[in-house]
Amino acid sequence: MSANVKMTEDHVRQVLRTIQALAQKQVLIGIPDATTDRENGGAVTNAELGYLHEFGSPSNNIPARPFLIPGVTKSNPAAAVLLRQGAEKALDASTQPDGQTGKPVDASLDRAGLLASNAVKRLFTDDNGWAPNAPSTSAQKGSDRPLIDTGQMRRAITYAVVKKDGQQNDA
Fold first, then answer.
1. Longest alpha-carbon distance in the chain
2. Exposure of 148 by Cβ count < 10 A (0-12 exposed, 13-18 middle, 19+ buried)?
3. Lower CB count within 10 Å: N or C terminus of the chain?
4. Which tens digits make up the pLDDT trace of 127-142?
């Protein structure tokens, strides 16, 4: 017994392009580095402060108060759901006549980036297990809450959708 199969549309190339587009993008979460003129007394950047606090500095008596890695890790399950939904929509769109496969991919990457950056920001106020400020630090800033003074570093946390070669996504 033989079965007759008739192909009416071939979407293999479109689906492969969609998969390739998915594989070429990534979401980066963190604090963008700003250029400062250190030799002429330039200020420490939020990115440098973030690194210093993420890993600590025993030589400067600064305990580690990790926020970036734990925040992103905490958001991973929900971000994976968003990314899967975006991939499914993109693959579905790739089989449509004018399928715009990039839009669902970019939208899911943006949603995952926003989710993760907000999870990182929440660690500044959630029960995070950070070492408390030293009494001298609390007296100087008028608060005993670690890493919260002006809120500038927390506000600097963001995300970017980039191509894996490091170039900003232009979609």
1. 87
2. middle
3. N
4. 788 888 888 888 888 8
d(CA 65, CA 124): 10
The count of residues in the chain is: 171
> Residue 38: is its pLDDT beyond 80?
no
Integer Cα distance of 88 and 139 in angstroms: 53
For residues 98 and 23, give the distance between their C-alpha atoms in angstroms, rounded to a whole number.
21
H-helix or E-strand containing 77?
helix 68-93
pLDDT digits (tens, 9 = 90+) for 69-105: 999 999 999 999 998 888 888 777 665 555 555 677 7
Q: Which residues contact 86 (CB under 8 A, 6 or more apart)?
A: 104, 105, 107, 108, 109, 111
